[in-house]
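Q: Joint fold for the lines below.
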Amino acid sequence: MVELAMGIMLGLCGVGAGIALIAGIGPGIGEGQAVAAACEAIGRQPEAKSDVTSTMIMGCAIAETTGLYGLIIGILLIFVAPGIFSGVLKETVLALK
Amino acid sequence: MAKLDPVVRKETAYAATWVAALSLVMEAVFLILKRWSGAVLAGNLIGAGAAVGNYLLLGITVAKAAGGPPEKVAMKVRSSMTARMLGQAVICAAAVGILKTNVYATILPLLFPRIGIAFRPMIDRKRGKTAETDQTAEAEGSDLLD
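A: Joint structure:
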């Protein structure tokens, strides 16, 4: 029974990590659109290229952070959560006995 | 190797400075909590390297894309972001899973460039004010000389 519970828990951690990584899709689309718009701006005003590029890099880095949050949660769910949950599970089983 | 765009170099240097400073703070926190070990240092180095590398690659992609046709640029940036994100995930997972580095010390530096960017407007404002003050002082000085 404990093995089954452990298996379900590990599986759910993996599923959770996969769902968390879906967060990486949105920023990619947003970043693409932002850079495309910035390219149009550079096309209109080539003399402002360095300013636009600088702002664009910062904007992209900010947009990417949401994806990074998902990545971090995914890594925590894979490497940290199973240890914590199995500890809790073992303690619960011992307490029930 | 192609020469780096000065804007990209400047932005990466800024991010790298913040990553280095915040990494030191993080190491200090681990030391204070008496949890410091080689695994923390290794994780920090790998995480910081991944964060700065990601920022540099982002800058190179954006600088190269600038000026191209918008549809192609959007596609290029999107695929670059996916590749960079996957790269970071692989590096962090390999560091934690294979090299057994500290999980928190490995993944926290990934967010350090973002913290640096959050402080950017404040620093720019201060610099702007300083530049304005210098200009005013110079102007006043030249007036006095006249």
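Q: Anything notable?
A: Chain A has a mean pLDDT of 88. The two ends of chain A are 13 Å apart (CA to CA).
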